[in-house]
């Protein structure tokens, strides 16, 4: 099973390349062009990462995050959520770059294969930048009465966080 | 504007809290550290991120996304019963969902906005049930291969950065499922 998930990535790449080649796609040009657009994405998020990671680092150094985590720890414990991951859960719905920065920091501090590092990674992988997405969609089509979209989306986010902690316990014991 | 309030608030709280707890110097040092950490993170994930956007582009050109969106249509008709007969709307909704599944983020948003525009025509200014469902589906992550977070894990020296896939799928499925369920339940309660 471990081998399957390790090989899943190279197998996926291989299968996509073969499939595309049989469809007469110029695989290599497409790959290079796509990689270039990845660089564009990266260039776009770097300024946001610098701004937000600086703010998060300062917030952490000031002790404000510990205070907040300490205050909320009993509630988080009851939900099975580690309080170390509170900063990640707070920024996740607001900013994708900030969440990536906070998540990377957690993964680096606790190690990518530690339960905390894994839970942070699964949280990042199974939730989205909710408020940003809602703002973009409703803003683009001129909706002012959003009705139940925000509460429903937040239900999904909270479930995502709880499920991430639970799924890591189930999958990695 | 929201981000302005949040960012300024974060800086203000750090400065005030740092001064109050006597950690002023640490806050000052963190401001410098944060910037270089951000650049380091960007560089360390660049390679894998670009490889994956490349692979995704190959996938897009091979027509795999179109195929997936055709497969999804019967399921999506049930989620969007009000517009199930509107071919144009269902086309953009299923294209949006399949782009999200495949992690084609830059393609998913324009497709989703196209669908949203179509859905919003029926009730200008007020979010219809279908529009709420579309937005909630887009605020939940359904990406099958979370490449960015795997790049971060790889950059931190993880030997098998994708070993979290089953856990991610489990958590994503539960999260999306609850989002959809919440939409269906709220749609009955929210009269206005």
Walk me through the structure.
The complex is a heterodimer of chains A (173) and B (192). Chain A is mainly α and 173 residues long. Chain A is built from 8 helices and no strands. Chain A has helices at residues 2-22, 27-61, 64-79, 86-91, 96-110, 115-126, 130-140, 149-172. The mean pLDDT of chain A is 91. Chain B is mainly α and 192 residues long. Chain B has one domain (46-189). Chain B is built from 8 helices and no strands. Chain B has helices spanning 2-20, 24-61, 64-79, 87-101, 105-120, 129-139, 147-155, 165-189. In chain B, helix 1 runs antiparallel to helix 2 (24-61) and helix 2 crosses helix 7. The two termini of chain B are 28 Å apart. At the A-B interface, helix 1, helix 2, helix 5, helix 6 and helix 7 of A face helix 1, helix 2, helix 5, helix 6 and helix 7 of B.
What is the N-to-C order of secondary-structure elements of chain B (H for helix, E for strand)? HHHHHHHH
The general outline of chain B is: globular
Radius of gyration of chain A: 19 Å
Low-confidence stretches of chain A: none
How far the N terminus sits from the C terminus of chain A, by CA atoms, comes to 15 Å
Tell me the distance between the termini of chain B.
Answer: 28 Å
Strand content of chain A: under 5%
In helices, the fraction of residues of chain A equals over 70%
* Domain unit count of chain B: 1
Main beta sheet strand tally, sense and closure of chain A: none
Mean pLDDT of chain B: 91
The secondary-structure class of chain B comes to mainly alpha
Q: Which geometry of chain A do the CA atoms define?
A: globular
Class by SSE composition of chain A: mainly alpha
Number of strands of chain B: 0
* Total beta strands of chain A: 0
- Averaged pLDDT of chain A: 91
Strand-residue proportion of chain B = under 5%
Number of domains of chain A: 1
Runs of chain B in which pLDDT lies below 50 for 5 or more consecutive residues are none
- Oligomerization: heterodimer
């Amino acid at each position: 099973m471990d081998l399957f998930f390790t090989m899943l990535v190279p197998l996926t790449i291989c299968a996509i390349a073969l499939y595309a080649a049989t469809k007469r796609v110029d695989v290599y040009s497409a790959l290079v062009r796509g990689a270039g657009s990845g660089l564009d994405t990266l260039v776009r998020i770097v300024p946001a990462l610098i701004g937000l990671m600086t703010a998060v680092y300062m917030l952490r150094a000031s002790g404000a995050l510990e205070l907040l985590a300490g205050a909320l720890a009993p509630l988080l414990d009851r939900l099975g959520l580690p309080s170390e991951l509170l900063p990640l859960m707070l920024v996740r719905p607001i900013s994708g770059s900030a969440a990536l920065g906070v998540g990377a920091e957690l993964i680096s501090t606790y190690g990518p294969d530690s339960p905390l590092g894994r839970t942070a990674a699964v949280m990042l992988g199974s939730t989205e930048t909710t408020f940003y997405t809602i703002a973009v969609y409703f803003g683009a089509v001129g909706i002012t009465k959003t009705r139940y979209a925000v509460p429903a989306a937040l239900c999904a986010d909270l479930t995502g966080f709880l499920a991430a902690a639970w799924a890591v316990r189930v999958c990695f014991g | 504007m929201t981000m302005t309030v949040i960012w300024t608030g974060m800086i203000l709280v750090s400065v005030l809290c740092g001064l109050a707890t006597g950690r002023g110097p640490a806050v000052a040092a963190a401001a410098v550290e944060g910037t270089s950490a951000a650049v380091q993170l960007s560089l360390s994930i660049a390679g894998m991120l670009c490889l994956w956007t490349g692979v995704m582009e190959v996938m897009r050109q091979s027509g795999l996304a179109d195929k997936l969106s055709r497969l999804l249509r019967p399921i999506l008709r049930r989620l969007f019963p009000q517009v199930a007969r509107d071919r144009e709307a269902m086309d953009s909704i299923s294209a949006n969902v399949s782009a999200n599944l495949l992690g084609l983020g830059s393609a998913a948003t324009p497709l989703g906005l196209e669908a949203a525009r179509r859905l919003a025509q029926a009730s200008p200014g007020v979010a219809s049930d279908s529009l709420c469902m579309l937005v909630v589906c887009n605020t939940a992550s359904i990406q099958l291969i979370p490449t960015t977070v795997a790049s971060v894990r790889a950059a931190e020296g993880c030997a098998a950065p994708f070993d979290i896939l089953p856990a991610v799928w489990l958590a994503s499925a539960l999260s999306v499922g609850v989002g959809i369920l919440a939409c269906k339940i709220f749609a009955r309660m929210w009269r206005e």
